[in-house]
Amino acid sequence: MNSNGGSTDQVTVYSPEESCQQCKATVRALDARGITHRVIKVAENDDDTRDKLRSLGFMQFPVVWAPTVGYWAGFRPDKIDDLASIAGGAR
Q1: What is the pTM for the complete model shown?
Q2: Does 35 fall in a domain?
Q3: Which of 12, 26, 37, 49 qualifies as a FRET site for 2, CA 20 to 30 Å off?
Q4: How many CB atoms lie within 10 A of CB 59?
């Protein structure tokens, strides 16, 4: 359930504009579990967003924000499963 609308309890996936296999896997896993999310494509020259993510300690994509779980980086099926359990969407 990819959504471009945003709510404060919505999952956000920060992904580079260029191809990112871990980003694609993350989005597919969220979709498969029915977890509403939005993808923010981060341009190569978007220094503000990249600096914000670096200041949080992240050096790789995707960076995911989920209000009930917090931030994480990379493809983390365990975190996505946690979200599905919390949302009641585990299958």
Answers
A1: 0.84
A2: yes
A3: 49
A4: 8
